[in-house]
Amino acid sequence: MKRSWIKLYIEILDDPKMGRLQDWLWRRAIELFLLAGENGNDGLLQPVMDLAWRLRVSETELFQGLTKLEEAGLVYRQGERWMMLSQSKLLFAKYLERREQWSLVRKVLAAVVFLRDGKVCVNCGATEDLTIDHIIAITNGGTDDLRNLQVLCRACNSSKGAN
Fold first, then answer.
1. For the whole model, what pTM was predicted?
2. I need a surface site. Which of 133, 141, 153, 154 has the fewest CB within 10 A?
3. Contact 39, 46 (CB under 8 A)
């Protein structure tokens, strides 16, 4: 059964993978999203010969576009056919990238706080089993700002509860 609608997320306008494409290639990506949705096979595109006819371009021109979209991470080859990454997969990839970046930021923040607090629990002076604590918990409106972070040993952190 062929689908007549696909879902394009607004975030596609801010996606750097799409935003960095030349205009003609951005259009080609949208056309291929539509054709993949119409094909209804989880992003599997029709054979290049059929796609080229449908888009009224030469197979060579289409292949060049597909190759550039592959370099941008929007399509990949699956045997002799091409597969479009779904927008949900693209958004998930963006989420993973942001999560990875945030993980690095948290590590840097922790290192700064440990150095600032002299690598000791600011409550009892312990030097082992140290953690980074939010003075005001995130759930209570606290932030990851350095002024809201402190070094506590696990025992002091556990006894503190969520303030």
1. 0.52
2. 141
3. yes
Pairing of strands 149-153, 130-134: antiparallel
Tell me the C-alpha distance between 152 and 131, whole Å: 5
Residue 144 has what DSSP assignment? Answer: S
**Distance spanning both ends of the chain, measured CA to CA:** 56
In angstroms, the CA 17 to CA 24 distance is 14
Q: Which of 62, 58, 66, 101 is nearest to 82 (CA)?
A: 66
pLDDT tens by residue, 85-119: 765 555 555 656 666 777 788 888 899 999 999 99
Using DSSP bridges, classify how beta strands 75-78 and 130-134 pair: parallel, antiparallel or unpaired: unpaired
In the chain, the amino acid numbered 55 is L
Structure tokens at 144: 């990851």
Domains in the chain: ranges and CATH: 10-85 (1.10.10.10), 103-160 (no CATH)
Percent of residues in the chain assigned helix, strand, coil, to nearest 5? 55, 10, 35
